[in-house]
Amino acid sequence: MASSPFADPAFYADRYPTYASLRAASPVLQVSLDGATTATVVTGYDEARQAFTAPLSKDTGAYFADRPSGRSLHPAVARTMLATDPPEHTRLRRLVTKAFTPSRVDDLRPYIRSLAEQLVGMWEPGTEVDLIEDLAGPLPVTVICQLLGVPPVDRSSIRSWSTDLFATGDHERIDAASHALAGYMAELIATKRSSPDRSLLSDLIAVRDSDAGRLSEHELLSLSVLLLVAGHETTTAGIGNAVLALLQHPTELEHLRTSPHCIPSAVDELLRYDSPVSIATWRWAPDEVDLSGATVPAGSPVFVCPGAANRDPARFPDPDRLDLGRANAASHLAFGHGIHRCLGAPLAHAEIEIVLGVLLEHFPGMQLAASADQLVWRHSRLVRGLVSLPVRL
Length: 393
Hints:
CATH 1.10.630.10, alpha+beta, globular, three-stranded antiparallel β-sheet, 18 helices, four-stranded mixed β-sheet, single chain
């Protein structure tokens, strides 16, 4: 059994050598997490795709029922739609699916582009900016806050709490952020209940208050927290990763400069090359499960790794090369697969696409303003993203 692949700080700076080593040992491998817990890590493409539809559970409540974690996560964060199985998951997902369909996202495109133009419009040619702080961070959080009806004055706090939730290993920081975020959203729900508007949150409150059987008060709070956090964190990482990849591959960047119509398809290759969701959210095996001939023991946590699967040479030849013309790039697993596939995938894809277009239009000569070894990556198992990205305009 392999030791924990997540204990080495070098993993967070560049996790792809670790993924390749794990996959070479076995695409479905048992590892020790902390000396006491054994988990299954899935790094192969076919195996990951199968795991996303296998009889694995996302019910963290059931898993931890007889395994006290000693944590104090707020229940609205500890048990969201992501931590449920059908039919509960199916019921909750159906309530918000319409808000993120491709047609609804198309309606949002003018607003997203206007916001991107506004943000880069404050930049001066010849200066240096932090692309995460000045664009990749504020744009997605502003879009999802606009959808949910979060007042502009509160959006910086939302972003800060959300960032803290993904601080792998810092349990005190994570737990505190969960209570701050859930407390804020509970107050916002109360405000919108007394003064409804046209936001998605008001729509969910109306569902709750007109038919309590479809949505409980706890579910209303947990769903609003999930939409708020999931609606921007990984997109921020995706934008940063995409821009960094292009700046480190000038030939591919020049291709997009001269052929901006290729940006939509290029986004899929960029998501494959450096996936913002590197390890999917928690799963576990209630019973023994077979994945492509490998056995997942009953009771085992399962870490499905889209970041590793998207670099599997059995699916993507020469996987460590960025190739914006890659024929099968759209088959990436950056958004997952199956019934838990990312609900906001159309919105995230559109936001990355629009940001790249606006950047190439306004600052076609932008350059990376730091060496690769100076870049700091977030210490998060789930999210692969930069803390900052210095860019010279």
